[in-house]
TrEMBL record:
Major location category of this protein: membrane
InterPro entries hit by this protein: ABC-2_transporter, ABC2_TM, ABC2_TM_bact-type, ABC_2_transport
Membrane disposition: Multi-pass membrane protein
Keyword line: Antibiotic resistance, Cell membrane, Membrane, Transmembrane, Transmembrane helix, Transport
Family membership: Belongs to the ABC-2 integral membrane protein family.
Domain ABC transmembrane type-2: 20-246
Highest taxon listed in the record's lineage: Bacteria
PROSITE patterns in the record: ABC_TM2
Protein known as: Transport permease protein
Statement: the UniProt record of this protein carries the keyword Transmembrane: yes
Length: 246
């Protein structure tokens, strides 16, 4: 067994001991979708949405919500906790570099978010007859870019906050605008046009639009994919630039 694999297995065991984090990443998006689906008007075709139902819009929104919960809410306190307790500093004196531990955390949070996204799609299909994505390659690309942006944002939050408490506060402050941009409070497609144009310039607003286009059978707009990718690149650069091991 390689050292990196050993670190990944150890972090997996620790990750499984965090039921609250797992709930918010894995269960919460599907629970929210189920609650929204109980609203009768959300299950009725809306002429203003081209015959689509509101619940159809919320499946890609909740897929993106899983990525946001993993990257923005769950990941930053873990990274800050390791740094605050001196774990990263002690690892820097051993053959196992701290980057292996950080990589393991990113892989685990991404896997949990992906599992949550699959659960959301399954709940939408089985409970509310929401059609699965027609353009699977475009959908997967939008999911990957959205997850990359969310994880990079979480790493950037951990990079600029000195303690776990500060990370939790800043992460919560970032979380709500991210959820708004993703369409949790109201799908991006239903927003007034001036607001929608602004939201589409934000990472999760653009990702939400790309996911919806792929889900309804079209190809994601390359503008939306490009905006999501550009934000991910900027956030990764910020996290790398500002992150400190101790």
């Amino acid at each position: 067994m390689s050292a990196s694999t050993a670190v990944l297995k150890a972090e997996l065991r620790l990750f499984g001991r965090e039921p609250f984090a797992l709930f918010w990443i894995v269960a919460f998006p599907s629970v929210l979708l189920a609650v929204l689906g109980l609203i009768p008007s959300f299950r009725t075709p809306d002429p203003g949405l081209g015959g689509a139902r509101v619940i159809d819009l919320y499946v890609p929104v909740n897929v993106l919500l899983a990525m946001i919960m993993a990257g923005v809410q769950a990941l930053p306190p873990v990274l800050s906790g390791y740094r605050e307790r001196g774990i990263l500093r002690r690892m820097s004196t051993t053959p196992m570099r701290p980057a292996a531990l950080l990589a393991a955390q990113i892989v685990l949070h991404f896997a949990a978010a992906l599992g949550s996204a699959l659960l959301v799609v399954a709940v939408g299909r089985l409970a509310f007859d929401v059609a699965p994505p027609d353009r699977l390659p475009g959908y997967l690309l939008a999911v990957l870019l959205g997850a990359l942006g969310a994880l990079a944002m979480g790493a950037a939050v951990a990079a600029v906050t000195p303690t776990v408490k500060a990370t939790t506060v800043v992460g919560s402050v970032v979380l709500f605008p991210a959820m708004f941009a993703a369409g949790v409070w109201g799908p991006v497609q239903t927003m007034p046009e001036p607001l929608r144009r602004v939201v589409e310039c934000l990472p999760f607003g653009a990702a939400s639009q790309a996911l919806y286009r792929a889900a309804e059978g079209g190809s994601p707009d390359w503008t939306h994919l490009g905006i999501t990718a550009a934000w991910a690149a900027v956030l990764i650069a910020a996290a790398v630039r500002w992150f400190r091991w101790e």
